[in-house]
Amino acid sequence: MTQIKAQQQQRDAMLAQLGALAQERQHLETLQQQLEQKQMEWLAVRQQQLVYHELAHAFGRKGIQAMMIENLLPQLEAETNHILGKLSGHQMHIRFATQRTSKRHQQKLIDTLDILIADTHGTRPYETYSGGEAFRVNFAIRLALARLLAQRSGVALQLLIIDEGFGSQDQQGCDRLIAAINAIAADFACILAVTHVPHFKEAFQTRIEIAKTEAGSQLELVT
Fold first, then answer.
1. pTM above 0.85, yes or no
2. What domain range includes position 7?
3. Are 47 and 123 in a shared domain?
């Protein structure tokens, strides 16, 4: 009887151990399913991360923006020089540089957007040009950029507003600026120039003259 009882106890212990192992196996199977689910989720997140990384690169400074700039710059440069030639008697020229040599590593090229300006004395920094010369460069770039943006949007650029800046021009520079405005006048429905320079003002037949009086500002249309 003692032997039978011992065998029964051993059997019960083995059954209990078997039940525990079965429960543990079920737990491991559940964990395996959860692991596979997490791996699938990780792969999906990883794929999404790669997509976002590609999108960030594409819409970043070195992606679509850089490609658009590279495609636009030659046309912008040509249009700017066309206008600048009229303003400077074909004495000034600009070039857009998108790469330059690194100061630390001479063999390395870095991305940039430098505006190189040249005249009869050669290429020199923007800061060395007079106020009148700098105004002509700025005017040519802004007008060229406005015209290109209008072309790309498919909408005609009807109105051009030029607000001051003429006081920095000498007589010859002012005459060239007037000639340049007249040369592009056909491209606009209206050109509005704001100025205090009498010589520049007299170049236009239709004017809105504003005079300050004790009663306030008075407007007069001169045609």
1. no
2. 1-58
3. no
